[in-house]
Every structure is written in C-alpha cells, then in structure tokens.
Amino acid sequence: MTAVEVDGRIVIVDTGLMFPTADMLGIDLVLPDFSILRERADRIEAIVLTHGHEDHVGALPYVLREIGIPPVIYGGLLTIGMVRSKLDEHKLRDVPLQELPAGERVTAGPFGIELVHMSHSIPDARAVALYTDHGTVLITGDYKFDQTPVDGIPADVSRLAELGRDGVLCLCGDSTNADRPGVAPSESSVGPALLEVFRRCEGRIIVTSFASNVHRVQQAIDAAAKLDRRVALVGRSMRKNFNIASNLGIASAPQGLFIQPKEVEDFPDEKVVVISTGSQGEPLSALRRMAHRDHPDVELHSGDTVIFSATPIPGNERSVNETIDHIFQIGAQVVTAADAPIHASGHGWQEELKLMLNLTKPQNVFPFHGDHKRLRLHADLAAAVGIDRERIFIGENGLTLELDGSKARWGEDVHASMIFVDGVSVGEPDEFALRDRRKLSDDGVFIVVTTISADDGSQVADPEVIFRGVPFVEEADGLREELRDVVSATLAEAAEDQVRDVALIQEDLHDDIAEFVYEKLRRRPLVLPVVVEV
Amino acid sequence: MTAVEVDGRIVIVDTGLMFPTADMLGIDLVLPDFSILRERADRIEAIVLTHGHEDHVGALPYVLREIGIPPVIYGGLLTIGMVRSKLDEHKLRDVPLQELPAGERVTAGPFGIELVHMSHSIPDARAVALYTDHGTVLITGDYKFDQTPVDGIPADVSRLAELGRDGVLCLCGDSTNADRPGVAPSESSVGPALLEVFRRCEGRIIVTSFASNVHRVQQAIDAAAKLDRRVALVGRSMRKNFNIASNLGIASAPQGLFIQPKEVEDFPDEKVVVISTGSQGEPLSALRRMAHRDHPDVELHSGDTVIFSATPIPGNERSVNETIDHIFQIGAQVVTAADAPIHASGHGWQEELKLMLNLTKPQNVFPFHGDHKRLRLHADLAAAVGIDRERIFIGENGLTLELDGSKARWGEDVHASMIFVDGVSVGEPDEFALRDRRKLSDDGVFIVVTTISADDGSQVADPEVIFRGVPFVEEADGLREELRDVVSATLAEAAEDQVRDVALIQEDLHDDIAEFVYEKLRRRPLVLPVVVEV
C-alpha cells in the first residue's frame, strides 16, 4: 500500500494484505496499518490497483469499510473483475470500480493517472504513472519484461522510455527478485515444458498452480486438450478465477473439455487432467486434502502424477514438502520445477530491474516490495546503472519520503505497521493476547478457583483445580491434592495477615501456584487464580 | 533407532531423537517409541552408535533411564566422547561406554559386531556390521564416500567390498540424498572456498556452521589463522564440541589464536573471525541473538560479513531467512552456500548410494533415514543396480522385517511411533493436551466461574468472567455484562428444572457460553465453566 500526497490530496496505489507468519498465533490476516488515512479520508482522490493478487488488493474490503468509499477505484480489466467478485463476497456493492485502459490518462484532483501495461504472473498487470506539478511518480507494481508473454502483449517498454525521456521524479520499483542474476524465463516457455511432462505420464495427471495465474492454467488446459484429455478444475478459487477470466475473454477452453470434479473417477486415468489449488500446501486446499486422502472427489493412487507448476513462497517450504511426501507415500509420482522447467517467476530478475532503471532514468529511486536483503540489492543495482547513492531511498513501513522538483528527503514517520484480522475483529496487534496465546500454546493453562467467606476470608469450599493443555498430568490426582494444600496454606496465611483485598490474595495465589507448578513440571503454564467471595 | 534380534537377543543401533515440528505445540523433543524394548530389556546385548549427531544419539539418556543400562555401548572415539559429556549433563554416570576401533570385531551374545569407518559431517562416523548365524546385517549410518576427507582417512571401501564378497544378508542404507544425482562435494573443498571468501572480507567475519562439524570448524580456524585473524568460538555447543574434539586430538588451533567472546570488541574488525552457532536460525542461538541485536558479546554492524557455511535443514528455511534478513537490516553482508561453495553435505548422493549397493551386493535392501520420497528413490537406485524389487523393503516405523538365510518378509507391526518430551514429562503423544493447546493458541481461553447454593442451586455470587488470549476484547465490559446475563439465565433454567448435578450444569453453561461467544466474536476459544457449590 503506497499513498502519494500532493497539495493535501491523496492517491492510494494498491491495498494488499499479508498472510500471518507462524508466530502470529490464531491471526487470520495481516493488513497494512492505514489508520493515518482515516482522518484524511476526504482527501483521497482515487485508489489505483496494479493487479489482482491478494498482496495488492486483499485489504480493499477492510479499507473501504474503515475509511469509506473513494471517488473512484481504477485498475486493469481482470483486476477490476476479480475485485468486484471479492467485494461482492464482502457484501460491498455500489463501489465505483472502473477499468482504466493502459495508456489512457485521467485526472483526479492535482493528479494525472495513467496505467502502463506490464507482464506478471496474472493478466492485466499495470505500472502506475502519477503526474503531478512536481514531476512524475512511477510505481511499477509487480512486473517482469516478458518478451513472449502468453497474451502476446509485452510490457510497454516504449511508453516507459517516453516517461523516462520526459523525466521521472521517483521510481518505486518491485525488488522481489533483486537477488537473481539474468532475466526471468518467459511464461510462454512453461506451456511446452508442461506438454512434454504430460506426454510422459501414462496415468492421471494432477497439476497445481496459483489459481490467479490464468495464463498458466490456460497453458495446462491447452496441453490437456492437445493430448485428448478432459480437464477438471478443482478448488474454489481455481473455478472462480477461471470463470471471471473466461467471462472477460482472457481465458477459454474448447467446448466439452471440462468435466466436473465428481466425474473425475468416471473417466479412464489416461484421459484426465485435474488442475488444482494447493501448490503452496495450504491446509484446506484441494491438493493438500488429496494428499491426506481426504478429498471428496479425487482419490490419489499409484500411477497418478502430481505436477507442481509453482515454487514454494518463502515460509511455505515445510507445508509443500509435507504435501509432496504424503503424495509419495500414497505411491503417486511428483514432478516439481526442480525436475522440469514448468514454472516461471512473475517478477523480473536483475537485468530486468536494470532495464527498468535505464528506461525510466529516475531522479530518485525507492526500491520496495522485498525484504531488507532484496531492497539493498535493488539499491545496489540502481547504483550500478549510475544513479547517485544519495538519490536512492530504502524505506521502512510508515516512513514518508518528501519530494519536490529538485530534491528528496525522508519526512515524518507516521508509524504505520500492521493491523491484525482475528476472527471478525480488526485491530492493532494485540501484544497481550498474542503473548498469552504463545504461553497457552507452549504450556497450557492452570486455573484454581477458591471460595472464601466475605466475613473472615476463610475457605468456604474446596478449591477447584482445572488444567488444560498441560502435558501428561491428566491422571495426576496427587498433584491436584498437593496443589489444594498449597492454596489452603496461601489462604490461611492471607487470613492470618488479615489480607482482605481479593486482588492481593489472587496475586499471592498466582505466585505460590506458579512456583509449585514449575517445581513439579518444569513448565510455566498460564496460571489463573480466581477468588470468589460469598 | 534400529533393533536387530537374533534368537531372542537384541542389539540396538542408534537411539536418535527428532526435533518437534510446528504443529507439536510446546513439545521439546520427540523420541522414538521404544516401549516394546521395555519388557525385553534383559535381552539387550549392546547399543551401537554410528556417530554423534542428535538424531542418532539424542534419545540415549531417555532410553537408559526408561529401559536400563545395557551391558555395553559401542561407538567411535568422538562419538563416545560426545555421548559421555551428554550423559554427564543428565547425571547418568557409570554407563559402560566403550570405544570400538573400526575393523575390530567383538562378540555380544549371538552377534559379532564390527564398525566400518565412513565419512560424514562429523568425525568418527561408522557403519555397523552385525554378524549372525543367518548372515550379516550392514547398517550404514549416515555416510558419504569422501575421497579427500579432512582427516585423510576415506571410508573403508575395501572392507565394504570384503563384506560384499562374503555376503550381506541385508543392507540398511541412508537415503537422505537419494534425490541428488552425482557425487557430493568433498568436505575438504570447503576450506579453500572459505579462505577465498575470508580474503575478500575487509571487516569482521562471523561464520556459522553446525557445532558438531568439527572438520568444518577446523577449516574455518585454519583459514582465520592463515589471514592472521584471531578466533572467538561463540555459542555453548560450539565451545563444548571443540573442547571435546580437541582433547581427543581430533581438532587443534595454534597457541594464542583463540580469544574470548567478550574480547571480540577489543580487537580491530579486520583481525577477528567469530565462529558461531545458529546456522539454522535457532531461536536462542548466538547468531540469531546477534541478528536481533541481543547478544551480550557481539554486536553486528555494517562492514561485518556473516558467512553461512551450512544450508537450512528442511523446515528451517523460514527461521534462516528471517535471521539473514535481520542481518541485512543491520547493514552487514551475508554470504551463503548459494554465493560460494562453502558447504558440503555429509550424506552421499545417488552415485555414492549405488557404489554402496555395488560394493556390498546385499541379498536384501532396506532403505532408511529419509522421507517417503527419498526411500522410494533409494529403492529405485537399488533396482537400477540390479537388485530384485522383491528384495527391496520400504518400511514404516514399528514394522518388523523378518530375515533368514533364504528369504525376507514383513513381520509383526509393533506400532512404534513417537514419544514426546514435554518439560520433564516423557510420554505417548498426548492428543488431548496438544488439541487443547492448538485451540488455546488459536483463540485463547474463556473461563466463567459461578457460585451456587448447595441448597437450592440459586446463584450466591456474581459470576466471574476471565478471558486470556482472546483478541481485542480486553476492554469489552459490555461483553462481560452480557455474558453474565447468559450465565444467570442458564443457572435459573437449571434451578427451575431442578438440575442439581454440577457436571450437568457445567455442560449447559459450556454450550450456552460457547454459542454466545461464537456469535459475538466468531471465535471458538476453549470455554471452561466452573461451578462452585457453597
């Protein structure tokens, strides 16, 4: 999510989300912290979306709900189609979504806005040129320079060169593959490789990829058709995205090629290709369920070949490997991008990043979309093509960059970090809840309920001891007994000292119980003493 | 852990442990389930250890404590040294640890035992030949055929060939790298590559590797000495393992080369090499703490170069990548095995596995030590060198293989799976505790304490409502109020229906509260109602 402000007016480019990392226990989604925009909602002229991936559009429903509906939302044809479907699911209707054809310039307050056609692993990816009185800001979105894209329309290098000739004040550039020397393989190199692998398969073929990679899915469909195999699209997002793309004329399949997932078992193995979600080993995805023999329609068996036309996103290696190993255990074959050139990244490699820099000749460079390593390597590439180190800015989330026609400098830090989505709640990272969950997930919880007399603080009933998630003590009646003794002793002492403040008694109980439990179990569960006065 | 039984007598080869995967919340270690050996403890003739890695010796203290001390424990020199130190830490003394030199044959009941020298990523790795009346069982341990190992003693191919000539009944072979074509690079190729990288570093050097890879640490020390840099060993296991190896004459350093970790900052950057634990991004390791600016002795800064002389073990990719990115954020340089040939695997690749099969010409092959994928690929290699598919057995943990001179077949399934170590407790996987922890880690816990009269079931005190780890409701007094109403209604209904069984009332409360909480929060925390009768 990038916000560009000129004369108090704002254009937002992309509103993506992040999937939670392993330490964010129980968190469903992570959004950018857009609270700074809340008090400036009436200054927003437009939201511009570069492409339809979740990390660029996924936060949009939350942004619209929290900040309000902006005058207009621009994007490419498929982007708008996918976002419309997403907003429908969130029951957000009457949102001013508008396709902005590449090369067409519109005005929004003090901004001119133009989209520039780029290649990526989803159709209709665009760079965004924002024209202002101070100069042009170019935000690349995610891109590669695919010279032979599947749709036949390469990235618009001519327009980028014109922008460069006319002067670019600041280039905000995708850094994802800043560590890979050379040029990314073309998406259209994947089709023949898939066909080649398909040809060698004697049994059923299951191919998995990102559902949003419409051109990849199209190439798998084409390969299946060439070999006279029927195709089943399996997984909700696979079917949904293909439908949207197909309705927009971006994807197609011969009449009668498709079969329903539940028909898969009715056709001979050598006549079927299943195209499935789950290339990242996602817990509830179709492929993962197949690998765990838990899919309602497709039962994997020996003779099947599962083709991963994707590589694991960093962090997903373990779930992908687990999925692959389950497939091996069933006895099916697995083909990955390590075995055949059946995947091509959607992000340009070093030579492409340098080409972008040389085409647009920016006065200032702002590498973004990458971890610290890749941001630094992108900065090194900019320096390598001759851009002054003082004109290269590696930012942090929330740090503003101030630009005018002559110079750039770091501005205010608006402290934008992350917002967590946790069930239906949306809010700042709740450090206490997360810390408690971490403790709970490690060592469980110990609850001791004591009932004391409001008159003299004496025990009225036996303490109740409850533990959950604490290991191997379920049958430990002895421990429970001893713990009751600890509680009685603490309460007796409190009564003797005439401590009558329930909070103080709870504190004493907490410390004594925690110490006892640690001594016995060498564990530090969450200890919750409850004192009931009657 | 492999147990070989002949005429009711048993030899155990290796007693390793596993580190818990992400879904084993709060579990510290995973042991093989050796309960079947408990009732047969008096039949155990010996434990033989192939090498000193945790996944081969780590369960030994638990095995000795649970099953008892066997008549003898054999292993190579360093293996015995490392195990002795480990048992000392567990206060297990007077254990009959005995170095068995390679090539020397001893007798243990109906077994002849001989160790065969192999190469691996730790010195003194051995294969185990067990001679029995039915034939010879050869267990490779972890191995590679390094033709130029650092200690100058290659794997004993001649002895393996002799064993093959005399007849091997069954080969149990390491499958770790069954998916990699060719031959693993030699460990001694790493030293020159490290020196080359060191030479290019102008500032401080921090190199990280496995502490047990003594030859790797030695090569880093030698490179530092050549460049006239002082060396600090940082991290407990790094110091411990080097000390053990050094006392046994397996590692050495020039007098005066070492400095203490706390002296690092006293020397000029270009005069220091830090050799550190943490190559896997382990949470409490020295390197991870440096990357988080939290190490007491070494503060990373721009100009430092951190060299990863190791690759991530599958599953550790994320923590390694996070560590690397933190180092980039600090501004230091990072060199990994992707940038220079500074790592060599300790497990042989496909050509080495085939060489082992051709040398030993086994009647039966039992691929082990690998996931399902690699076991199957190892089986394919065995078939490729001409072994009958019916003589190749891919097992599961707990499944026994019965062999006699003429044939082999699957025997009884003794259901050995895993044992969890959780704090000081050791036991069967506690599915209830783990399930609770998963729930707790996702959605937290909701506790409602009610106090009712033992006479008529009426409420005596206001219900106490406590929640921990539940998101974003910390200030939700309204919710607490509403919940009290829910509780009162449930109790009133119970009193009206004359329900006096506390367990039944708790069940009612649980269902009503869980429904209410889900409706409000769309979350399913663990709900614990407590009813106190006074």
Task: Describe the model.
2 copies of one chain form a homodimer. Chain A has 534 residues and is of the alpha/beta class. In chain A, 32% of the residues lie in helices and 24% in strands. In chain A, strands 7-8-9-10-11-17 form a 6-stranded mixed β-sheet. In chain A, strands 1-2-4-5-6 form a 5-stranded mixed β-sheet. Chain A has a 5-stranded parallel β-sheet with strand order 13-14-12-15-16, with helices on both faces. In chain A, helix 5 (157-166) crosses helix 11 (350-360), helix 11 packs across helix 12 (372-384) and helix 14 (477-496) packs antiparallel against helix 15. Chains A and B meet through helix 10, helix 12, helix 13, strand 22 and strand 23 of A and helix 10, helix 12, helix 13, strand 22 and strand 23 of B.
Please state the structural category of chain A.
alpha/beta
> Number of helical segments of chain A?
15
How much of the sequence of chain A is in beta strands?
Answer: 15-25%
Enumerate the spans of chain A where pLDDT stays under 50 for 5 or more consecutive residues.
Answer: none
Beta strand count of chain A: 24
N→C terminal distance of chain A: 55 Å
* Mean pLDDT level of chain A: 90
Multimer state: homodimer
Strand numbers in spatial order across the main sheet of chain A: 7-8-9-10-11-17
The outline of chain A comes out as globular
